[in-house]
What does this fold into?
Amino acid sequence: MAQYSRRRRRRRAGDDPENHERWLVSYADFITLLFAFFVVMYAISSVNEGKYREMSGALGSAFGISSGDWVAMRPGGAPGMGSRIQLTPEQVKAETLRRARQERMREVTRNLRQTLAPLMIDGKVRMAEGAEGLTLDMDASTLFLPGEARLSLEAVRTLSEIGQVLAPSDFAIRVEGHTDNVPMSNSQFPSNWELSSARASSVVRLFILNNVDPRRLTAIGFADQRPLEDNATPEGKQKNRRVVITIEAPKG
It folds into this structure.
């Protein structure tokens, strides 16, 4: 019986061997604490970045811009993880203003398309978007009688509607007068230069009457020096007699 008890004690002792890897538990605890320490330090160092993110998000919300389109970066700081663009607060402001101006240009374009739809369908007005901005190419016959710079009643109505669309914006506007190559010579307009300049000025004056800021406006006469078509045909001459209104694109 005593011999059996000794064998059982030896068996229990063998079932519980000494654990030589208990140090891993302490090491894991140490690593966890160290990781928590660095997380806290990173959070403290990212206070300003968080403020910039809040600012960019607020500005973006005001103009319908997703806050994911940019992320503010502290001066001298490291780029944010997973961000597509790193911008300083000054760049965030500039980017917000740029996008707001682009949206205003799109709104102006939509409103002008709606206003000029009948004339565009008839081919009397052509609208184009390019590097310089939005261009309205208007047939002079829809605005003036031959050889005159006084706007017709229909032209006054159409251009007034255009002016009302342009007045709330702040884009620079250039108005150009163009003629065909038929010489103009009378007491009022000694040449096509005077005629084209007077036509451009008539449009500018009407825009001013419709509350467009005069500082945004420029009137230029090109006479017959920039034809669209060959002046050898009546059709070509008609296309060359035009007024071009350019709403200049936002810079930057």
Q: What stands out?
A: Strands lie at 71-72, 86-87, 125-129, 133-139, 173-178, 217-221, 242-248. The longest strand covers residues 133-139. The two ends are 99 Å apart (CA to CA).
